[in-house]
Amino acid sequence: MLRWTLCLVAVVCLLAPGAASADTGNPGLKSIQAIAFGPDGLLILGDGIGAQVVTVQTGDKTATAWTKSRPGDIKEQLAGRLGTNSKGINILKLAVNPASQTAYFAVRKLEGKQDLVLTVNGQGKVSEFPLENVTYTRFALPPHKTTLTDIAWADGQILVAAQAGETFKSTIFSIDPKQPKGVAVVNTDTYHVAHGKWETNAPLRTVMPYFDQGKKYLVGAFTCTPIVKYPIDDLKADSRVKGTSVIELGNGNTPLDMFTYEKDGKTYILMNTIRMFHKRAPVGPSQYWTAKVDYTILQESKKVNEDALRRVGNDVNKPLTERAIVAADYHGVVHLDRLDKSRALVVRTDDKDGFTLEVLPLP
Amino acid sequence: MNATILVAASFLVFQPADELRFRKLEKGQVEVIAVLPKDLAAKFPVGPVATDAGEALLRLCLVDPKSKKAGPPMLGRYERRGNELVFRPRVALEAGRHYRAYFGPTDEASNVADYRPIRPTPGEPVRVVKVYPTADVLPANVLKFYIYFSGPMLGGQDIFEQIQLVDEKGNPMESTWLLDEIWDETGQVLIIYIHPGRIKWGLVLREIFGPVLYEHRQYSLVIRGEMLALGGDKMGKDYVKKFSTTPEDRVRVELSDWKLQAPKAGGRAPLVAQLPKCIDHKSLERFLSVVDAKGDKVAGKSMIGKEEKSWIFTPETPWRNAEYRLVVNGRMEDVAGNTPTRPFDLDLTSKQPPAQPLELRFHP
Q1: Option in A111, A128, A199 nearest B230 (CB)
Q2: How far is CA B188 from CA A72, B68, B127, in A?
Q3: Region B43-48: what's the mean pLDDT?
Q4: 3-state helix vs strand vs coil in chain B, percent to 5
Q5: Looking at residues A93-118, what average pLDDT do you find?
Q6: Is the pLDDT of residue A7 over 70?
Q7: How confident is the model at residue B11, as a pLDDT?
Q8: How many CB atoms lie within 10 A of CB B216?
């Protein structure tokens, strides 16, 4: 079993352009690879090709009621609004606006390589969130093409995970929207402690914030699904800050989305993954499966890194802990986000090119 | 406004013929134009029309070729111009598909007009122009390939089935690629990574599947003719790049191994850096520069030599009789992902060489 600890190398806060003041018009995005929401309908868009992160005031604050799952194929419906079929688009990301419960999809139309933001409200109406004339703020990233994997809003700070582009590396961009001086660029290294000797780059696939005793952390998940936390506030230029691996959910899985929620007085992390070993050692009926993880595991300080908890051993269906379990009702979930206190909004596949948009109770 | 228009529209008798038509615009764009009856036109202000109000009267939909049913109305902008209601779709219509415009309160009670964007006469099929690394001998842990196409490609997850690494018996390798599509802005250049889990030491992917490539073997990178160009046309012919493998390269890029051919002062003969191993061509483009003794960047043009094993720099102005430096960014990668600062995988138990200066001095 592989054990990982992780180490962040804060390279430097280096970007001169940094934050601009709010502007009105078209932010000129060249791609929309990741989306997330801040407070009051603040949409955060990650544009890896254009080397920028853009925040947009959507003004979308009117709550919409979701009563049930939407009939039909959501991918077909999104594609149809763009004059193509479901093979003609990729759904890149789903983010629910907490201020309105409207679902925002980052969609790529393959023909023309156009990235757009489409919305679906509680009544199932598909619209575009147009970016031609919006109030926005642009944060310039280093002028190199990269792929942004996820964005998180962490109590006033924007954290962006990036992975391989023309060079293989893992980077976190830390943006303080109130500081116009620049964007902190942090490169991450990963130690493979299983064999006690190997270190390499490993891209963060999905990220979220975590707060504990007044300290702010970035929680990230990597392929092969270790969950790791980094103390964000400790990052200094030219310093090395070690992250802490708290649990490993199993080999051969790539995490996709995650969020936290409370249920019955306890807090959990919900994270969906895609499994590379599905044919050899399936976790469920679909290659997409979801883990429900006890949130207090992030507070762990002793059983970490080499000694961190493992969800399973060699047999993927023999759990070693009850603190991380398979959410059986979430098999096949390709995209997910929290809808409200008790429900999630998910895109689920039937593994036969069919995709449904469903409202699911949180497990 | 919306309710008014809906009610008004429901009482209209829509006329066939040229009441509803398509107008071609540049770059494959079209407009759908519906002539409004006078009483209804009076209810629309001239200028932009709200989407809901527009869709209540005029819809452009993709027709499914099998079921013949129309899909949802396309997104776009509505505008009243004169006595016309004009719809311009948000995205260009796709060649070879069947679109239908409806002008009326419901699809059943509408005028309809069909439009089938014609595929341009097939010209030269899109082909693979070049693949980097260009060498036909590569380390078994080569990390990625750049595939340059002659035209923009469609992309999509199918490409990871259509691009294969094949052994000498013709068997495609299993679970080869990192499933991230990394295209350039034009859609003509694809970066495709061999899954790093098959390359890095100690990861379960490598332990179970083994590496994708083994040393001292023959392989082919095959780009299948099924790959679709923008517009949906198949590439047609397979592209095959054959290569053999050397043992894995797991050491950092040693700049002291580079050999500089210093030019003569007073001329503009190029500086030539001979590189003992293939360097990623994008790294050579981005991460090498020449500076003078003051550290000021020397203006000039650079070229990449055969098999990405040399870098040639020609200054804009003659070399002076002074010291210069070839400066290397620590992010520069060889074809296995090793940089001058560290190998792709760092063995923490092995003794690491001291950090090396990221520059080479020369004096014309």
Answers
A1: A111
A2: 34, 34, 10
A3: 88
A4: 15, 35, 50
A5: 95
A6: no
A7: 37
A8: 9
pLDDT at B200: 85
**Range B255-362 has CATH code 3.40.980.10:** no
Query: How far, in Å, CA of B68 to CA of B314, rounded?
Result: 62
Contact B197 A144 (CB under 8 A): no
**Distance between CA atoms of residues A279 and B81, nearest Å:** 58
Q: How many CB atoms lie within 10 A of CB B346?
A: 22
Cα separation of the two ends of chain A: 28
Partner-chain residue, chosen from A83, A166, A199, that has the shortest CB–CB distance to B91 = A83
Q: Which residue is closest to A128 within chain B, CA to CA? A: B75
Cβ atoms of A51 and A168 within 8 Å: the answer is no
Quick one: which of A41, A20, A57 has its CA closest to A133? A57
Q: Are strands A309-310 and A239-248 parallel, antiparallel or unpaired?
A: parallel
Angle, alpha carbons A180-A182-A184 (nearest 5°): 135
Q: Following CA atoms B50, B56, B58, B64 in sequence, which dihedral angle do they give, to the nearest 10 degrees?
A: 120
ipTM score here?
A: 0.87
pLDDT of residue A231: 80
Instruction: Determine contact, residues A229/A246, Cβ cutoff 8 Å.
Output: yes
Q: Is the pLDDT of residue B4 over 80?
A: no
CA–CA min distance A84, chain B (Å): 7
Specify whether domain A4-361 bears CATH 2.120.10.
yes
User: Which residues numbered 65-104 in A keep a CB inside 8 Å of some CB on B?
Assistant: 76-77, 80-85, 87-88, 90
- CB-CB contact of B333 with A167 (8 Å): yes
Look up tokens 């390798």; give the residue: B173
Angle formed at CA A111 by CA A105 and CA A117, multiple of 5 degrees: 20
Residues A269/A295, Cβ–Cβ less than 8 Å: yes
Please provide the CATH number assigned to the domain covering B2-115: 2.60.40
Residues of chain B with CATH 2.60.40.1220: 128-246, 255-362
Virtual torsion, Cα B318, B324, B328, B334, nearest 10 deg: 70
CA trace torsion A271, A272, A273, A278 (10° rounding): 130
Gap from A185 CA to chain B (nearest CA, Å)? 14
Residues in CB range of B203: below 8 A, 6 or more apart:
A2, A192, A224, B196, B197
How far apart CA A88 and CA A80 sit, in angstroms, is 9
Q: Does A191 touch chain B (CB under 8 A)?
A: yes
Give me the CATH topology for the region B128-246. Answer: Immunoglobulin-like (2.60.40)
Task: List the one residue out of B158, B145, B338 whose CA is nearest residue B243.
Answer: B145
Nearest Cα neighbor of A152 from A236, A212, A239, A93 is A93
Say whether A16 sits in a helix, a strand or coil.
coil
pLDDT digits (tens, 9 = 90+) for A240-260: 556 777 887 777 788 899 999
B 17-56 residues with CB below 8 A of A?
A: 51
CA distance B151 to B170: 28
Give me the amino acid identity at A89: I
Q: Taking the alpha carbons of B325, B328, B330, B336 in that order, is the dihedral positive or negative?
A: negative
- Sort out which chain A residues have CB atoms less than 8 A from B226's CB and list them: none
- A78 neighbors A107 (Cβ within 8 angstroms): yes
Q: What average pLDDT score do residues B126-149 get?
A: 97
pTM over 0.80: yes
